[in-house]
Every structure is written in structure tokens, then in C-alpha cells.
Amino acid sequence: MSLMNELHKKIAADRKAGRDISPVIEELLLMIAEKVEEPAAKKAAPAKSTDTSK
Description:
Blueprint: H1 3-16, H2 23-43
Helix pairs in contact: 1-2
């Protein structure tokens, strides 16, 4: 599961439990998670070709 999804789940659970998080802090956390996930997606190995005609 992605970091963004985990953060959304945890924030929603905290709000349901009555522990609110500042919208500014929430946005900051989500922006950081977005930046962290971008390099990981770029490093992912490309799919291998299934071409067997060689």
C-alpha cells in the first residue's frame, strides 16, 4: 500500500477517534509523501518483454 493511502487512513482514523490534525500539517505530510513516492516509482524496473521471437 502506498504511503499516501496509509496517511489518509491514519488521518481518517484519528479524526474518527476525536484527534484532529491541522489541515496545514495534513497537507504538508501528504506533499512530503508525494515527493517520496515519485523517486520510488521512477526507480521501478520496466516490465520485461515477453517477445520470444529472438
